[in-house]
Amino acid sequence: MDLKQIEQTLTLLKTYGVKHFRYGDDEMELELDLPATQQNEDYAFTPAAPAQVTPQTQATQPQEESPVDDFKEIRSQMIGTFYLQDEKELTKPVIKVGDVIQKGDIIGYVEAMKVMNEVTADESGEIVEILVDHGENIEHNQCIVKLK
């Protein structure tokens, strides 16, 4: 694993919010513990030829990244299988599009290691879109629901 591969790995880890990573092969072993508070910050990796950022480039970047819509998102806090109710058989989902939820309301459950964990809303609003189906596997920090 060369420096470029390590940088790519760090970028992926940061994107998916991974806190711990271990890799090993015949030639090397790599173990990384990333603090949760720095998930959105750049890591102290300096490329061989650092890119120059001009003030003009900085001014255009936020405009390109700003979303067109103001939807709030509720994201998964763990990896597992998402359910719209506490049973695996879907009879009546906890939420549906158009429901108005408050901060702290249960919006579904994530089964991880044979334990059903409640997923609660960290925002209040009206459900515009449910992005994960009942019984679908989800990743950490994956968007589950969009609110307006």
Automatic annotation (TrEMBL):
Residues 79-148 form the Lipoyl-binding domain. InterPro entries: Biotin_BS (IPR001882), Biotin_Carboxyl_Carrier/Decarb (IPR050709), Biotin_lipoyl (IPR000089), Single_hybrid_motif (IPR011053). CDD domains: biotinyl_domain. Pfam families: Biotin_lipoyl. The gene is accB_1. This is Acetyl-CoA carboxylase. Coiled coil: none annotated. Keywords: Biotin.
